[in-house]
Amino acid sequence: xxxxxxxxxxxxxxxxxxxxxxxxxxxxxxxxxxxxxxxxxxxxxxxxxxxxxxxxxxxxxxxxxxxxxxxxxxxxxxxxxxxxxxxxxxxxxxxxxxxxxxxxxxxxxxxxxxxxxxxxxxxxxxxxxxxxxxxxxxxxxxxxxxxxxxxxxxxxxxxxxxxxxxxxxxxxxxxxxx
Length: 178
What we know:
Elements: E1 5-8, E2 11-14, E3 16-17, E4 23-26, E5 35-38, H1 41-61, H2 93-106, H3 112-125, H4 127-134, H5 138-145, H6 153-163
Antiparallel strand pairs: 1-2, 3-4, 4-5
Helix pairs in contact: 2-3, 4-6
């Protein structure tokens, strides 16, 4: 099915099937990484059209020239879109909790993704406010949660408390081995 393409407003998108059976795709022949997914082909088509519409709206609102596949060679030095930053989408405590839960599930086991997510959430809330509420300095937050940071558990719980997030133990699902 990877030869199938979607078309909308002059843009083309790929159609792929992920290992878990979801349909995924990306907008083709542009540098801006626009992706979409759906459980059915109809949902995928709707998601593709929504991504194109959102991209065009964003470019219009930011006074950025939207990249067209046919114009790629002409726009090599044009800023086309803002890089993705999770911070831009974290607006409530519920968003914080869902994002952090997702990162707990996807973390490779070394805590790096969890630590990065906590930093994103702290940035979304405001580093100065989180520092004040946790009793840490802004610099201390950046140091603890940065790439080289290795925060103590007590530091993590202070930060999570300042973010309005509690850690709650749950029973892990059993992993079946062959």
